Amino acid sequence: MTYERTGREPEDGSMPRPRLPAPPAWLRWLPLLYVAAVLLLEPATPVDWPVSFVLIAVPLVTAFAHGPGVVAAATMFALVLEGVLAGTPCCAGRSVGYLWDRHYVASYVCTALVGALGTILAAHRIRRERTLADVRFVAEIAQRVLLRPVPHRIGHLRLESLYLSAAAEARIGGDLYEAVPTRFGVRLVIGDVRGKGLLAVETAAALLGAFREAAYDEPELPALADRVDTSMSRRATQLGGSETSERFVTAVFVEIPADGRLVRLVNCGHPPPISLRADEVRELESGRPAPPLNLGMLVDDPFRLEVYPFGPGDQLLLYTDGVTETRDAAGSFYPLLQRLRSWGPLPPKELLERLHDDLLDYSHNGLQDDTAALAVCLHPEQPPVGASAR
Fold first, then answer.
1. d(C-alpha 354, C-alpha 356), whole Å
2. Which regions span the lipid bilayer (predicted)?
3. Which of 34, 44, 175, 300 could form a disulfide with 372 if both were Cys (CB 3.0 to 4.6 A apart)?
4. What pLDDT is attached to residue 6?
5. Where are the domains of the chain?
6. Residue 156's closest CA among 259, 74, 87?
7. Residue 293's Cα: distance from chain center in Å?
8. What is the fold, at CATH topology level, of the domain defined by 148-389?
9. In terms of DSSP H, where are the helices of the chain?
């Protein structure tokens, strides 16, 4: 399963209360289908093979999709139906009824016992489902704090975000993104934390906190990346352990000035952004990308600035390696550039919706890694980039 987040949150920022997952329709109707099968088979079976005995399982079948009240009612229904079938002479060619035959009495006792156990099982299942729903609700709130919905509009820019979790129960991973309007222009970051689990989530939260603070202060993009790198190194040192240098984050820092005529990039070991124009789709590959954050000590001049043209109608796609490392049934990687070229020009919202559907279709709903993407498009006839709206 996957969890989707595309920036289409409620306008008031509210979160719906958790609801218990609805079981499949066939599972809800299974008890009635089971009883119908018994009623069809009972008249056709010999006296020595009364099919009505299998009604013992009705409470257990009901417990898979219904609550304890329904299971208790199904138990009573099964007991009454067993008595009716046992006491009806015409069933299975009998000349007399067997309502109080010892074998049938044993069947009644077993049905009542299974019904009691099924009622307990249903109550336990409901409690577990409610607990899971509450945990997922809290995790979703935590993710909204970690990955705030990006503005759909910042001046000339149109933005959309996508987040897909490979583990729907977890909901939170190490992929991250953010977009903030500053006096230097709109600044964005997308990143992928090495590893998984709580440590990855904590690292992503630390990086986003450092970026959100430094983005407003540092006039130069390489200085911003350096400041975030310092925060990551400090955090890794505080955690201690023998793998301090392996706690790294790949990231891309982006700056689009107020006039929107160019885009500045600092790539820290991350998959290169993709520039989409009406007649061109290409990767913005740096000849010498910087190492991932917390590995800057490996080189003397780690953060190099790259500048590219970015005119009206141009679009920038930032993504994590969960996109390009998605595999099909044959094990082939997802051909992102080929797909983008075949789709043609699409607005940010439609682009990410198409990417979302295509990733799930390509992997047969079997994503193995978290995936994040951020689409940014420059439109004319809009207010200056400094103004933002959600």
1. 5
2. 25-41, 53-79, 104-123
3. 175
4. 46
5. 25-139, 148-389
6. 259
7. 26
8. Phosphatase 2c; domain 1 (3.60.40)
9. 25-41, 58-63, 68-87, 102-146, 198-214, 221-239, 321-324, 336-343, 348-362
